[in-house]
């Protein structure tokens, strides 16, 4: 049975017998002590080449935006031509944006993104951090203040008219209240506070008001169980 201990013992024996060179022994030792498993990212093309072979449906499914919508999104988010990470890693603006969309479209690990982007896990992590920081720096004010132009009284009246015209009984309803429970790991202390008897999980709860344009007008939470 090949275990790390057996492989290391065999390598030391070969090194003592002068069958393994010093640099070869160093490579064996480095591989045995690698924290992250090796992913063959070099076997995959970059995202720009892969996009040429992807259908519109595939692009929409993976990134939640169509091919024609991506340039508009990049312009709206003020995505630069290139992202340069702290260690010198360079990614095009569109590659960085696609990484962010892929990461947020559906929960996935960084290693799951290797076949699509042809980059190592550390590179993907650095690029994602750079893109996220850029978007927050340029658009973070939209998250800090909910008094947005689309929530002005005239706009709320148009929301209410649209909802009423679709058959709603009320003529002054402009948003919809919804709540969601996000499961969490069972805490070591105060478990009862975080336990949700309805969903039968430990979790935190949010309540939001969603407008007809799909945007969240108000978000309350997170909270635990309300007695």
Mind explaining what this structure looks like?
The strands form 2 sheets. Strands 3, 4, 5 and 6 form a 4-stranded antiparallel beta sheet that branches. A two-stranded antiparallel sheet has the order 1-2. The N and C termini lie far apart (56 Å). With 227 residues, it is an alpha+beta fold. It has helices at 4-16, 22-32, 47-51, 56-63, 69-76, 93-105, 114-117, 121-139, 141-144, 153-165, 191-194, and strands spanning 82-84, 90-92, 176-183, 195-196, 201-210, 216-223. A hairpin with a 4-residue loop joins strand 4 and strand 5. The mean pLDDT is 85.
Give me some keywords for this one:
single chain, 227 residues, alpha+beta, four-stranded antiparallel sheet, two-stranded antiparallel sheet, 11 helices, 45% helix, extended
Overall number of strands: 6
Order of helices and strands: HHHHHEEHHHHHEHEEE
Radius of gyration equals 25 Å
N-to-C span: 56 Å
Major β-sheet, in short? 4 strands, antiparallel
Question: Shape from CA axes?
Answer: extended
Work out the helix count: 11
Structural class: alpha+beta
What proportion strand?
Answer: 5-15%
- Mean pLDDT, nearest integer? 85
Helix content: 40-55%
Q: Give the uncertain stretches in residue-range form.
A: none
Topology, element by element:
Elements: H1 4-16, H2 22-32, H3 47-51, H4 56-63, H5 69-76, E1 82-84, E2 90-92, H6 93-105, H7 114-117, H8 121-139, H9 141-144, H10 153-165, E3 176-183, H11 191-194, E4 195-196, E5 201-210, E6 216-223
Antiparallel strand pairs: 1-2, 3-5, 4-5, 5-6
């Amino acid at each position: 049975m090949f275990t790390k201990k057996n492989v290391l013992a065999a390598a030391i024996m070969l090194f003592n017998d002068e069958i393994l060179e010093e640099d070869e022994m160093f490579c064996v030792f480095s591989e045995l002590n690698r924290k992250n498993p090796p992913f063959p990212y070099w076997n995959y093309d970059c995202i720009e080449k892969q996009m040429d072979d992807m259908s519109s449906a595939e692009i929409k499914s993976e990134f939640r935006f169509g091919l024609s919508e991506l340039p508009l999104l990049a312009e709206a988010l003020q995505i630069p031509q290139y992202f340069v990470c702290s260690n010198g890693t360079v990614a095009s603006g569109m590659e960085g944006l696609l990484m962010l969309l892929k990461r947020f479209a559906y929960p996935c690990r960084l290693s799951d993104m290797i076949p699509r982007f042809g980059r190592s896990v550390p590179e993907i992590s650095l690029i994602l951090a750079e893109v996220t920081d850029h978007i927050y720096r340029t658009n973070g004010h939209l998250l800090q203040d909910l008094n947005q132009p689309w929530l002005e009284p005239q706009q709320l009246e148009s929301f209410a008219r649209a909802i009423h015209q679709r058959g709603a009984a009320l003529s002054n309803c402009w948003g919809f209240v919804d709540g969601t429970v996000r499961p969490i790991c069972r805490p070591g202390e105060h478990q009862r506070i975080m336990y949700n008897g309805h969903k039968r999980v430990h979790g935190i709860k949010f309540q939001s008001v969603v407008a007809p344009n799909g945007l969240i007008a108000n978000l309350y939470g997170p909270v635990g169980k309300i007695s």
